[in-house]
Amino acid sequence: MELTYVICPEDAGLELLDILRIKLRLSMTQIRRLKRENGIFIRGESVYTNYRVSPGEPVSVYINEHAPEIPAEKGSLNIVYEDDWLMVVNKPRGVFTHPSRSRYSGTLMNFALAHILDTGGESCHVVNRLDRDTSGLILMTKSGYAKALCAHTDMEKRYTALVFGVPEKKADKIRLAIKRAREREMRRIAAPDGAAAVTRYQVLRTFRGFSLLDLVLETGRTHQIRVHLSTIGHPVLGDKLYGTPESLEMAAKLGAEPHMLHASRLQFAHPLTGRQLDLHCLPDWAQMLDNRWVWK
Phi and psi of 215, rounded to 5°? Predict the structure, then answer.
């Protein structure tokens, strides 16, 4: 991958190292690698990072990108946004975000990699992940460089959920620390000695025995929303790990399986262009709420 930058008058006299760090926002690890590979050029000639730049000089760096060592597989992709640097995909329920040691194919990342390679890209990187049965927006980048920039980008992630019962407060902030229930166990619990976790929620609508919530994560713990809602007595409908017999019975009657949690909105500044992006999508279960019998 080639990155280019033309020296501006205000850059005159700066060392090339400053241009690489400030203008191209490369990490020192990336810069050291470029130096070893002689991958830094001005007007097509390899230069050192202590070179003093002049206005109008074109700087080019070449970053080697390698596709992840996973199979690229053709699969269904609901692309909400895409450009040369990144893409945002609406992940369906029941699909894993990325491969693991025991699961090498059939994931959203396998499908996204095939699409990126087919359209001239070289690599695929996942910025935010979702549980298998949680649907919604996932940000992926087409280079390690873009992913590294995303680490310094503030993102607001909003979720929509159908939960058992009706919360007493129409809007609140849940502050409950979270930890593993037991070592090596997937399940999490709220515990004072856990990692700090904060979730904001607002009740959007109430129905016969369940509610539609808008949620915002202030922290990003594993299963955070599911643990928090279950702990306050309003588990996500269809959640077999954190639900109660009553909530699972209601979910079965509604056909709410797997669980009804959806990453509905993603807001952030594009890490390369600075453009503000506000992306959103409805869950596949939204049409269920059109049935008149569920309204209060």
Answer: -130, 145
Contact 145, 94 (CB under 8 A): no
Task: Kindly report, residue by residue over 24-62, the tens digit of the pLDDT.
Answer: 888 888 888 888 888 899 988 888 899 999 999 999 888
Q: Are strands 135-141 and 261-269 parallel, antiparallel or unpaired?
A: parallel
Tell me the pTM: 0.82
CA–CA gap between residue 239 and residue 256 (Å, rounded): 9
**Structure tokens belonging to residue 75:** 């699969």
- pLDDT 10s digits, 228-250: 999 999 999 999 999 999 999 99
pLDDT tens for each residue of 191-215: 999 999 999 999 999 998 999 999 9
Question: Which positions are catalytic?
Answer: 131
Domain count, the chain: 3
Domain boundary among 152, 174, 208: 152
Q: Which of 258, 295, 38 is nearest to 131 (CA)?
A: 258
Reduced to 3 states, what is the DSSP secondary structure of residue 129?
A: coil
Half-sphere exposure of 285 (CA within 13 A, CB side): 24
Assess whether 166 and 232 both reside in one domain. yes
Task: Report the distance separating Cα 289 and Cα 296, nearest Å.
Answer: 11
SS3 at position 76 = coil
Distance, in Å, from the CA atom of 296 to the CA atom of 292, rounded to the nearest integer, reads 9
Q: Do 236 and 224 reside in the same domain of the chain?
A: yes
Domain region containing 56: 2-62
